[in-house]
Each structure stands twice: as C-alpha cells, then as structure tokens.
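Any chance you could type out some protein's one-letter sequence along with its backbone structure tokens so I can compare the two?
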Amino acid sequence: MAEETEKWRFKRLIRRLSQYRGLGTSVITLCIKAGSQIALERQRLADEFGSAVNVKSRANRQSILTAITSAQQALKNYNHTPPNGLALYCGEVTDSQGKTKKIVEAFEPPFPLKNRQYFCGNRFDLEPLSQLLEDQTSYGYLVVDGSGLLIALVKGNQKQILAKFQVDLPKKHRKGGQSSARFGRLRDEAIGHFITKCAEQANISLLSQDQTVVSTLIVAGLGDKKTMLLNSARLDPRIKALVTYPPIEVAYGGEAGLDQAIQASGALLSDLKLHQEREVLQQLMDQINRDQSYCLGLVQTKAAIDMGAVDTLIVYSDLEALTSSWGLSVAKTEASHSAEGAELDEQPSMLLVDWLLDHYKTLGINRLYLVSDASSLGTQFKAMGGVGAILRWHVDSATLDADQMAAEAAEAAEDDFI
C-alpha cells in the first residue's frame, strides 16, 4: 500500500507539472541522478548562467537567468544528493487557469533517477519522471527442480539472482531385490533434506528485517518439487502468502527455467494490480448485497468515519471532491520562490483524496485503497460516487444519513449564531 500511495502521489505531481507552460524559455528542468555530486551540479549551473548572459533577446535572457538563479538557490539546501537523486523544476510559468507565478519544485523521486537531464525551454521535461513510473514492483521468482534451486528478483526490465545452488539427488532405483525399499527410503530422505534447504534459503533471501523484499512470488519448476516446497513447514508463512498464482511448470531448472517462468507469468503479472482492485471492490459489493457492514458516498462515509466505524476505506483515485465537501477547512500553503524571495499562495481547500492519504491513520482507519475505473467493478464504484467503506460493525444507512444531516444542521446553526 505504501508503494502504491507513493506512486499515486508521484503521478499527481507529474500531472500538475505538465499543466505549466513557460513564458518563452523561462523554465528549467534539472534531474540529478543518484550518486552525483551536488558541488559539480552547482558548477554546471554556473557555467549555464555564463552562457545565458550571451542570449540576444533581453526578455529570454532575463527569464533564463532568473530560472537558473532560482535553481542555484534551491541547490544550496542540499549538501549531498538524496539516495534516489534530485529533481528540480523552476521558472516563471502560467498554469491551466492562465495565472502567472514563479515556482521552484525540488524533491527526491520515490525511485532512483538513472540519468542526468538539463533542459531549458517553455515547458518542463517530465520524461525522466514518467520513466520512473514504469513497473517498479518487485517480483520474486523461485525455480526448483531435482537439480537445484534458483531465487531471483525481477523489477521492471532488470533481474537479479539472489541465490542458487545445485544438488545431485539419487535417481529412482528400478532394480528389485531386498535393497529396493532401502534405496527408496534414502532417496526420500535426500529429497526431504533438499526441500528443507530450499525453504531455509528462501526465508533468508526473501525476508529482510522481518519484511518480505518482494510483493509477489512466482514459483516454477519441473516435477513435484515446487509443490513439496510450498507445502513445507519450514517455509515462512509470510513467503507462502506472496504466492498468489498456481506454480508454473517449466522444462528446465536454473536460469533457463527462470527465463521460461518470466515469459509464462507475463500475462498474470500484468493483471495483478487490477486483480487486487477487483478483490477489495468485490468485498465491498458482497457487503452491499448482504446489506451488512458498508457505507457509500461522501455523506455516509463521513458519518461512518466520525463514528469510528470505518475499517477499510476505498476511494476512486481520480475523485475530484474537495475537502470543503466534508466541511474541512484546510490551509494549504505552497511556496513559490523567486530570485527576490518567497511568495505564499493560500488555498482554502484541497483534493479530498490528497487529504485522506495524509490523515486516514489518524482517523482510525486501518486501510485505504485507491482504485481505478479500469475494471467493470471500478466503473460501477465510480458511478456510485467513488467513495465507500467496509465497516467494523453494521450501521443502518438511514442512521448514517441522519447523523450527517444532524451534524450539518448543528454546524449551520452555529454559523448563524456567530
């Protein structure tokens, strides 16, 4: 959930930056990759400043110099590059409503920047950020057969071998005689030791500080060893919980088997996010069909939260409702820096989904899910208002509506009194 929340916030930031347009060549994009030296970037900006002095157009020259100066001022706040790099967007812009302002956005992306980018023009270059939104989910692959074990981590288009080893298990004994049962018993014991070793290695490779290092685990292999491993009591239950799809049968072990498993699981993984969305929405629909512990819409959900009844909150990710729709007074201050100083823009309301991401825990809500309309259930949920919840206990819908109406009436009476 935390990673999905960060990705959603990041998408929202990219969308906001994409709406800005510069006044001529008045905006600067500077993406500093992880591990770069801030001192070197300061020197490069100084060189750009020296080059900009020679721009013939006075208006363009002044715009570029102002933007570079803002970027230089922003870099003074950093002694070293953050672990994921640094993205800097600054200059004089017009927003979607035609308002002009000077902004500086300096932030560490949720995923590492791999390339440096400097661009000065009439728009921000958002391609380096958009590339970071390509699938960053970590998938684990466990390939096991009679010849050994391989554990790998796949993220985007990169794969990393976490562990591998080979064994030489006894073959099936086809000869008869008195020794047949003993050979079979020795083989079973060897396989049992092998499965135990595989389980212990999986625990070591896929757990770090009591947390799983992948979000989904794909198990593949040849024969029955993969099923035996999943059924092993030595395999940590947290790792077993990561296996959301049946084991994949492959023709090889080792890295050849890994490549086969990645290819075979591609269709499954592409649908994983939608599967998770459908799952939580189906839980809500089940509650609705049974007329049990649920609420729908802004009014009922607000009343249920006030009662402390909400366990799981579900919100359509592109919900346009503002905090004012819940009667929340929010003072959101956004600093817009210029060469002369900082200007503060006060905004009395903000998107409700943004506010909930920051405050749902303090409201006593266990889980918050952001869902899209990419599935039929998602489209149906959007049509229902895009806000709903699974409750801790049953609350009658009429009670939720009445409680909210009473609260609004009391608030209105208080305003009239004042």
